[in-house]
Write a structure and sequence with these properties.
By secondary structure, this protein is an alpha/beta fold. Helix content is 34%, strand content 18%. A 6-stranded parallel sheet has the order 2-1-3-4-5-9, sandwiched between helices. The protein has a 3-stranded mixed sheet with strand order 6-8-10. Helix 3 links the parallel strand 4 and strand 5. The chain is globular and about 55 Å long.
Length: 271
């Protein structure tokens, strides 16, 4: 049995990660915000899952606190064996089609308000990789999805609507493409990164983008109708290289395969 600390254990990923660790018999410390014991007790192996996603534009200072503030205290003062920092493949966005490899030199417009997310995640990565004494790694996660109520994001929201609606109209463009990965594959990947004591950065992604139009076809084959109102093609984005992930033995299922499994489950549609 190993000792783990999950920062952000009340969140979507953190809660599932903590449950997976406990299920295999590990001891899990899941501190609440402001826990006075955090910097005084032995933390063992740490997963840093705290962060803001959808509301970072309206909560910029909270975003920086979540991505960097507590992390700084941990790296400076806490007692831990190893730390895995959850970041995002969103950091490649400004590179467009040129991006997607863990060793890419990232580019940011420091004046762009939306980049408070990217810049704070990048700073968190830098602190882990350069100021942890060689005890930290970075997991860059792509677009997660699931049908659970606490899941968020375009595909997760679509799945939750599809549980109750057979005809769905969306303002998005059918041309938009994203790299999706199911949360179960993310948990497998994080455990594999920990088990291998990886250093550096690992893309936790599907490794292939799927368009909204393709997603609509999967739903159509299963008996749903998805109508897209938008028609503007998004700029071509990066395709994440998942070579490092597959070397750890993790091969995420294609998004369309997971979707087909969900939609064919008799318990999925609530009517």
């Amino acid at each position: 049995m190993s000792r783990y600390t999950v920062i952000g254990a009340s969140g979507f990923i953190g809660a599932r990660l903590a449950a997976a660790l406990r299920a295999r018999g590990d001891e899990v410390y899941a501190p609440e915000r402001g826990d006075p014991e955090l910097l005084s007790r032995a933390l063992g192996r740490v997963f840093y899952c705290a962060g803001l996603t959808g509301d970072f534009m309206v909560r910029p200072f909270d975003t920086v606190d979540a991505h960097v503030g507590l992390l700084t205290d941990l790296l400076r003062s806490a007692r831990f064996e190893n730390l895995i920092y959850l970041s995002s493949t969103r950091l490649y966005d400004s590179l467009g089609a040129r991006g997607g490899r863990e060793d890419d030199i990232l580019e940011f417009d420091v004046a762009a308000p939306r980049n408070v997310y990217d810049l704070s995640k990048a700073l968190g990565e830098n602190l882990c990789l350069a100021r942890s004494g060689g005890r930290a790694a970075v997991a860059r996660l792509s677009n997660l999805f699931d049908w659970a109520e606490d899941a968020s994001g375009f595909l997760s929201d679509l799945l939750k609507r599809a549980r109750c609606e057979r005809f769905i109209r969306l303002d998005s463009s059918p041309l938009t493409e994203r790299d999706y990965i199911h949360v179960d594959d993310v948990i497998e990947a994080l455990l594999a990164i920990d088990a291998a004591n990886v250093r550096g950065t690992v893309n936790v992604a599907g490794g292939k983008s799927i368009s909204n139009a393709e997603i609509g076809h999967v739903f159509a084959d299963a008996g749903w109708t998805i109508k897209f109102a938008g028609n503007r093609a998004a700029p071509e984005g990066p395709v994440c290289d998942v070579t490092r992930l597959t070397r750890l033995g993790v091969r995420p299922k294609a998004a369309r395969t997971v979707l087909r499994d969900f939609l064919s489950d008799p318990s999925f549609f609530l009517g």
